[in-house]
Protein 1
Amino acid sequence: MPIKLLRKIKFTAPSGSALLHKKEVFYRDFPAKHVVSAYVFPCSDLESNQPLFNDGFPSVIFMPNPSDDVHLKRKGKTIKLKSAWVCCGVIKDTHWEIPEGLEYILVLRFKPSSFYSIFNIDPTIFRAQPVCSLQDIVDESWARRIEEMYRKDTVAERITFMSDVLSSYDESNYLPFLLQSAIDYIDERKGNTTVADVLDTLGEKVNHKWLQRNFVKYIGITPKKYISLQRFVYTYSQYDRDKSSDLFTAAITNGYYDYNHFFKDFKQYIGVAPSQYAWD
């Protein structure tokens, strides 16, 4: 999803109130077993060229109308997607050209194990194609459900429909306990850690091969890459939110070795140098 929207999610813990900021709405009526969170984000204030980013949690994005096309720029090439699209895996140098007048997007952030089970998707497909049309990777039954959702007149009706559909699935959202502990530790540290630190925290029962194998199996990426994604998005978010310190200080505080280390990640994920980026 656009990294500016993901920043708001990472630094907001909705509880009680439905409002995140102005008209941005967090929905609590999705089955918690499968969906981490659901949001309706207004897009009228977003600049057209938005870098996309994913933090390891698969996100499905629904445009307002079934006829809406999604135009991306990836390393200079144009990619056209359908109205329901997915951000998953590691996204590099990919920008969404937001159409003029777009009112909102509906975003569902899934638990990885639930996402791959419910949609019957092999996580390895996102290594080469981390942003794609949902309709192109699901079976006919899911394609029909998406069409039926779009026949609902209002956003609220579409949300209710999708919530009911997902609630009907009994697929397991199981993660091995030690893998969940590793993820929790990385998230708690906001990516300011290493694989070696994670292994030390888990103890002698877990070795590097086990951690690597289970991250790829259940999350779709390696533990080193998962750590890198968390470290980057939190560094980006901290600086973009308050700019209380310079970017170098923000990078070092969040676990980067030096500014060049952060510069390399920024160029990899966003596609431009930090000095060329349109910060808020």
Note: The two ends are 17 Å apart (CA to CA).
Protein 2
Amino acid sequence: MRGLRRVTALLGILAMLTAPALAEDDENFDLTDLTVVVEEESLDEETPAPAAPGDALWDFPVAIGDIDPELIRLANKQSLLPKDYVPANLVKVPKDPAKGGIRWAVTPSDGKLKGQYLREECAEALCAMNAAMRAVGNFRDMYLKSAYRSYQKQKTMYHNRLAKNKGKDDGWVSMEGASDHQTGLGCDVVPKNWKDKAMNDKMMKEPECQWMAEHCQEYGFIIRYPADKQEITGIKTEPWHLRYVGIPVAAYIMENGLCLEEFHTQLAEAVERYLAAGGDPALVSGFTQGGAAE
């Protein structure tokens, strides 16, 4: 509209300047003889938003703003969580599928907590994924078998496992501080016919687990312990163990066949390049930590 008003004003001025000529020789006057210069502008076109600070220097496939340091936090033998680490915003996972929840295989007790707890964003994503699976049909109900575990709970489980195996760590139970469950972002999800059975890698053959491996990234999850990454993760294949990292990170990890340790290795290299190029350290604070794959 502003451009139109400018043209109208110019035509008005020109009309006043040429009024005598029109009176004297209006039959010979042709508006096409006038040259009107119009400044082109469009108020409908939005000015492109400036790039986020540091984006121009960031050369990693996942954008800086799509990486939450807490959601990608490692927990393994090289990167132990403190004994007093308790994740923020733990919530009890709803267990009624008819109301958007997911069934529980067991009702655990962990200190003052009784039931299955996860960080809120992880719980919401898990319930959304379960609802999607139920909508597909032809799948058995899925059960949440294990969610958040405290440092002390994991310590008890680990040492019970050692006692059962005559002191040998068989790679099925993580030591205290090294458990993905302590982050509040790791959860074991099993088909109905496995809810009362000891879990093993044969579960990979179940169609429900195959569906999770194919679609979990759409909800922000990865398969935390893939079959071909045992030497890196130090944990045997667990097709039931999901880890929430957020959708952009999950998509990158799953599409590229990585484990979380390998993602951290790549991310650390990207941070190093970014800082060497003059990037803002505050924007990548917390992105790197020990325990990444060598």
Note: Residues 1-45 have pLDDT under 50 and may be disordered.
